[in-house]
Amino acid sequence: MSDIKYSFFEEMREITDDPGWNSLLSEFSRGIFPQGITYHNRSIIKTSRYRKKLTYKLPESLDEALTKFQIIMRKSGYKTILDIESELTADLARKKKGWSGIRSEKLRAYHIKFYIASLAEQHDLSPVEEKKLSHYITISYILDEIDNANISLNNGHIEGITGLNWNSKTRSFLLEK
Fold this sequence. Notes:
Radius of gyration: 21 Å
Strand order of the largest sheet: 1-2-3
Distance between the termini: 57 Å
Shape: elongated
Number of helices: 6
Order of helices and strands: HHEEEHHHHEEEE
Helix content: 40-55%
Number of strands: 7
Largest sheet: 3 strands, antiparallel
Structural class: alpha+beta
Number of domains: 2
């Protein structure tokens, strides 16, 4: 582990279960920081786009330091997939309107991407086939061939798109009208 510059981040990495935080802490331990963020004397220094510097001292306790680190990074706009999933689930539980209750295009895109990944795994799609499916669903959605009524959610994830069928002979999906 000769590439470890900051062992404190490596120690925090060992106590988190979230792969997103684990990955970010691994980068920090090697001295790789996002733009505008540096580290010195157990402090994260964040420089805003207006050159204002904010210094966040990390506590000695690993648990407290990890919590503070996550708060700082979330304020900086960093979110892990687990963070996004919990936000989506909470949002859907709060609204209970299904797909039509999701107003944010970013959240809709995330749901569609997650659904496409599950279909790719289910049908053992190649990267090219997965990309083709992604384009097909995106264009169908833009052209209103897929609308709110076609998309069913379960536990915060797309369960299915009504009319979207897999053809194993052509190894492609088709939308029945």
